[in-house]
Design goal:
Layout (H helix, E strand, L loop, with lengths): L1 E8 L3 H13 L6 E8 L7 E2 L6 H13 L6 H17 L3 E4 L9 H5 L6 E4 L40 H14 L4 E5 L2 H11 L4 E4 L15 H8 L6 E9 L7 H13 L4 E8 L10 E3 L6 H10 L2 E4 L8 H8 L4 E4 L4 H4 L6 E4 L3
Parallel strand pairs: 1-2, 1-4, 2-3, 4-5, 5-6, 6-7, 8-9, 8-11, 9-10, 11-12, 12-13
Helix pairs in contact: 2-3, 7-9
Length: 355
């Protein structure tokens, strides 16, 4: 069986989940898996698709974006065409859709050959809504995304309103119910998908995986701290995200919490890994380490910490929680999304109320 995985980028948690899925499928007999990404560096397991469009096609995308008066959409239009062109050329037995909203648009799905089945891994809520990736308390996505969108502007640019986009997506799902299957990593998101589509579209829960031969307990915590340049005394908290300044990831709450604990006399230090896209002074009191791309090195950071803290205000089934748990480090999370499905309160960490 020949399968083609389509995704937006090779970076971030969604890409990590896609890579682990691809590696697992590659072990299945008679299964051949190719992966294409719209952006990001070409890696051993995935090819970038943006190199294959001609100058004529690029010019067409530019003109189309200008006619729409949305020049910032040019790159998305380009990526949609690049991925769809390669999908048609390769003619797989099935498409595996991963995260696509960051660099593509829904037109990618509409351009795919209609006779080929689609298995869509829900890395967030984007497939269920008319715009956002996480709706938080908003329930408008269940019946049309009408009214004001609380998340408007936070998930990139779009050419139409959430209500019109929801209608467009609903039309696509209704016309393709026989060839679409949804897979959600968390029971939380599986439930939302079932609530959104009812029994029209089959949905399954298949959790993310983690390499337990890489992420595992390592002894001598104090020695690890010295080697990694981390504080050797006191309680060490570790946090991480692709962009540690992402408000959804709640790093600001961690800043407030560690400051309060220090005021109460607790000997505490905090370190965080991830891209620093804003001024580092926005995270006072936190040692910012930048991205940690090497999984073996990341495992050492988990082992050096007393607690891994993920104060996300909305999340699916975060890879970092799986990695910390496999490393033997307890985690602290809010009771949001799929986080409590990984962290069992009082067993392998602590679960707090988000409100």
């Amino acid at each position: 069986m020949k399968v083609l995985m389509l995704m937006d980028t090779t970076r971030g948690g969604a890409a990590t989940g896609a890579r682990r899925l691809r590696d697992a499928l590659a072990t299945v007999p008679d299964m051949h898996v190719d992966a294409l990404a719209a952006t990001g560096p070409g890696l051993a397991w995935v090819q970038p698709a943006d190199r294959w469009l001609s100058a004529r096609q690029l010019l067409f995308c530019r003109l189309q974006a200008r006619l729409m008066r949305k020049p910032e959409l040019e790159r998305r239009l380009y990526n949609d065409r690049a991925l769809a062109n390669q999908a048609r050329l390769r003619q797989p037995d099935a498409f595996l859709i991963q995260n696509i909203w960051q660099a593509c648009s829904y037109s990618l799905l509409e351009r795919l050959p209609r006779q080929i089945p689609i298995v869509w891994t829900l890395r967030d809520m984007w497939a269920l809504t008319g715009y956002c990736c996480y709706s938080f308390d908003c329930r408008q996505y269940l019946d049309g995304c009408t009214g004001n969108c609380p998340q408007w502007g936070k998930c990139g640019t779009t050419s139409i309103s959430p209500a019109r986009e929801w209608t467009r997506r609903e039309r696509f799902f209704s016309a393709n119910v026989d060839r679409i299957r949804l897979v959600a990593p968390s029971r939380w998101l599986t439930g939302l998908a079932e609530e959104r589509f009812g029994d029209r579209i089959r949905t399954a829960c298949i959790p993310n995986t983690v390499e337990t031969d890489v992420f595992r307990p390592v002894p001598e915590r104090q020695r690890l701290r010295a080697i990694l340049g981390l504080p050797e005394q006191g309680l060490l908290l570790l946090a991480g995200a692709v962009n540690i300044h992402d408000a959804r990831k709640g790093t600001g709450l961690l800043v407030e919490a560690q400051a309060t604990l220090r005021e109460q006399g607790l000997d505490i230090a905090c370190a965080a890994f991830g891209e620093i896209k804003d001024d580092a002074s926005a995270c006072p009191g936190i040692k910012l380490m930048g991205p940690v791309a090497d999984p073996a090195l990341l495992n050492l950071y988990y082992n050096a910490a007393d607690l891994y803290v993920l104060p996300s205000l909305a999340d699916n089934l975060p890879n970092t929680l799986l990695e910390a748990t496999a490393a033997g480090t307890p985690s602290v999370v809010f009771n949001v999304g799929g986080c409590p499905e990984v962290v069992r309160d009082g067993v392998n960490g602590f679960v707090a109320r988000s409100t």
